[in-house]
Amino acid sequence: MKKFNLFSLAVAGMLALCVFGCQKKDAATTATANQDEISAATKSQITSLGFSTENARKVAGGYLVEGDILLSEANLTEKAETAHLSVAETEQYRTTNLVKALPRVITISVTNLPAVYGNAVDAMITRYNNLGLRFTFQRAAAGTTGQINVIGFNEGPSGGYITLGSSGFPTASGNPYSEIKMNTNPAAYGANPNLLYLTSVLQHEVGHCIGFRHTDYSNRAYSCGGTAVNEGQSNVGAIQIPGTPSGPDAASFMLACSNGGDRTFNANDVKAINYLYK
Ligand SMILES: [Zn+2]
């Protein structure tokens, strides 16, 4: 998930030195190659999975696409069970793999992050569990790593945006994606991160972990502004969810870019989650 960052535009020149300096010191979280270094074959694989290659980045563990979704090498080559859900024009979700072996409990751990991140994970868990789905989240036992582990990374603004967090999609065997990265750079959430803001971003990243794509994937400019990016629907099926509106809906928790506030499930989001997991 990303946030438009006016500050970074205003002082981009001044900031550039700092950003690059910081990134060099932090090899684990720095993009190791730019888009030009992604091969044509890989770009073609990304496209065939239905994702935009615009601003795709090579990062540790795979390729970061659409701002906050990590595609592993395995994701690129596996034959995913796919479904395309159309809720409304700007309420579209596409799942690759889904979480299987339901009902089940999914454990979540938080590693090396300030207390407020753990509190936000707890609040996020409550929001999902209140939906009464066929999976429930719970915190992993202290000192153990959960099936989803939340860790930090530190990355400043780039290109007018800052990455708030990132995650990926379920595995082909039906497990949720196992890692959520949250940006601890002060430009992301400030020196004292707001609990509900963190909660909403975690809610969004967990949405990817269980198979949701961006609501506005067909036009990311809807929530992010800038140039319209439409990566197309790929060769997956389409399933219309009955009883959902046909007009735009600006409040989905899976919009690509944050509004900087506490965005949670709206009525259409709940319909889509229920459709997949209730
Ligand atoms: Zn996202």
UniProtKB/TrEMBL annotation:
One of its GO terms (molecular function) is metallopeptidase activity. The keyword Signal applies. Keywords: Signal. It comes from the Bacteria. Residues 1-24 form the signal peptide. InterPro entries: MetalloPept_cat_dom_sf, Peptidase_M10/M27/M57. SUPFAM superfamilies: Metalloproteases ('zincins'), catalytic domain. Gene3D superfamilies: Collagenase (Catalytic Domain). This is Protease.
